[in-house]
Amino acid sequence: RYRALPSPSAQLRFFGLQKELVDDFRIRLTQVMKEESRCPLGTRYCAILNAVNYISTILRDWGDNVFFLQLQQAVVSLGDQEVLGSLEMTEVGRLASLEGSLFDGLLSLLDRLKGDMLGRLLHFLMRDTAEKAQPYCQERWLSIPPPQDHSAMSLSSSACPMMLCVRDRLLNLHQVLSVSLFQLAWQGLAEKLDNFIYQEVILTNHFSDGGAAQLQFDMTRNLFPLFGHYCRRPENFFKHVKEACIILCLNVGSAILLKDLLKRSELETRDWEDAGDPSPESALNELGVFCLAPCDVLILLNLKASLPGI
């Protein structure tokens, strides 16, 4: 359509029309989205999100297309006021140096809409999951017997509603969202779940050795594998929970030594290497703890019922 037009100025006028039509479509999608926003997991809402993502992807591809790069140079050389009139000097400079594209303004609006829609979807999804997780949050972790008292460990019954909810929602989203959007969705859910379980399950309870072992089993053998269908190492998306389980499952001797080291590091200012002791960070790294800060680890150690106060 562009190449049949006789001159760059005519092509630029057609570009203005196309840009206006795409923006009208974006506005219409926004209107329909608001009507469907009560059910963000519904087919229509997800279809709108797919459409927004698709248009955004196409415009990014066009921005790198040789024809549109040449048209971009024509905009700057001709000083087309319809395109340049609303732009600041820095934006004009980006167009001239090919750092930006003719579609940057539209892309910004589309990306904002996509971000808002994805955020609403994740909020609804996490609210549903948190509701199902309430029995798990109230589990009596302190009274769970040691693992050797069980013939074989199994998933906590209180965790079943939460696990089923996560599984079903992931399967549904996998079917209705495009590949790139689904990847953003499951990673966003994993991040929110990691924070929720760390804050609402772990930090609000005390754990017997059996309770810590049960929590680790529920997470590593049941929750993480739900996301293992979509990536190789799902535990990397649950860093707080994974590392908290490591600390809670330490044997008493190791936990006492670690707690003593961390408490002395809080009270003393010293060069740990010269003193011959490992630094708190290196000691934690040896255990596989890289995300949690020493102060967070101290809090977790105080949640171990088997650890004497020191």
Automatic annotation (TrEMBL):
Any Pfam family matching the protein: RINT1_TIP1
Origin superkingdom: Eukaryota
InterPro entries named among the record's database cross-references: EXOC6PINT-1/Sec15/Tip20_C_dom2, RINT1_Tip20
Coiled coil: none
Name this polypeptide is given: RAD50 interactor 1
